[in-house]
Specification:
Length: 310
């Protein structure tokens, strides 16, 4: 791998690989550069790729934080605040180096828009910070559209043989906008329209529907917390009223809140609130408890949809 340029504050290259050998060679070279510079490092990639990197590093793997991205980053909206910012904020002095692989062949079509937006939003989330985040992409197993999006969300691309080039199509905002997709409510969804006086009732409605559809145990607490946060946001920030819909989809419970509010911060729910800040925690809490969160915002309001495995 050619040395990733580090004179800029934030560096965000995509690595396009085709074989396990290319993957291991380039990721290990990236980490060895960090070891030579004494940089704190983290690796968040799918489990099998974690093992490739650990084997490639051998005795040099000590001191690097390793996370299985299929667990830590199952919800793409949780990766920036909990995985990346969590590590970067713990090392405020000097450059931090991370490998993050949030998109793999097992990602579903429902998950992918949130994944693409995540990769785009990294660029604004870490703007001006001394951080290098390398994002590997499997050119063989991922769809061509995914590879094309990666060139738009990463200012720099690195090939499997280590050649580095500037992406001439880089435009992170375009990907955020493209995947701000309207979300259609399932026709068989149970629905509840609510105002301020209905907040206790809408939470009970959500729990009753979740139990009816097969949710049980501790996950019911996640339903209650997420619905409480979103419906309260509707009352406080979303015009005072909203509608909750609940249904199941491919062995997942789906809860959706619609209101007249409009999100103007693309990092809403992914940016940890500053000390003393009022608000900003509700949507992030939903990201923390849910398996997936999809958001659409437009002139007619905002829809937040979260998924929990049954």
């Amino acid at each position: 791998m050619s040395t990733v340029t580090t004179h800029e504050a934030f560096v965000h290259p995509a690595l396009f690989y085709r074989t396990e050998q290319e993957y291991t060679r380039q990721t290990v070279a990236f980490l060895r550069e960090g070891l030579a510079s004494g940089e704190p490092m983290a690796v968040a990639v799918p489990g099998p790729n974690l093992e490739l990197i650990k084997a490639g590093l051998g005795g040099d793997a000590g001191g690097i934080l390793f996370l299985d991205m299929t667990e830590a980053g199952r919800n793409p909206g949780r990766i920036i605040p909990k995985v990346l910012r969590g590590f970067v904020d713990a090392h405020p002095k000097g450059r931090v180096r991370i490998i993050g692989e949030p998109i793999w062949a097992g990602r579903s079509a429902v998950e992918y828009p949130a994944c693409a937006q995540h990769e785009a939003l990294i660029n604004v989330a870490f703007e001006g910070r001394a951080v290098t985040i390398l994002c590997p992409y499997d050119e063989v197993r991922l769809d061509p559209e995914v590879i094309a999006d990666a060139k738009v969300t990463h200012p720099t691309v690195i090939s499997g043989d280590g050649r580095e080039s500037v992406s001439d199509v880089y435009d992170w905002q375009a990907v955020v906008d493209r995947y701000n997709q309207a979300l259609a409510t399932a026709p068989d969804a149970a629905a509840f329209s609510y105002g301020r006086e209905d907040l206790p009732a809408v939470r009970q409605f959500a729990l009753a529907q979740a139990m009816r559809l097969g949710m049980a145990g501790e996950r019911l607490m996640d339903v209650e917390l997420a619905v409480a946060e979103l419906t309260t946001n509707s009352v406080v920030h979303g015009g005072g009223r909203g509608t909750l819909a609940v249904w199941t989809e491919q062995e997942q419970l789906v809860c959706e809140v619609r209101d007249a509010g409009r999100l103007t911060d693309p990092l809403a729910g992914r940016r940890p609130p500053e000390p003393g800040q009022l608000g900003g925690r509700g949507l992030m809490l939903v990201h923390y408890v849910a398996d997936l969160v999809r958001v659409h915002t437009g002139d007619d309001g905002t829809t937040v949809r979260f998924y929990l495995s049954l």
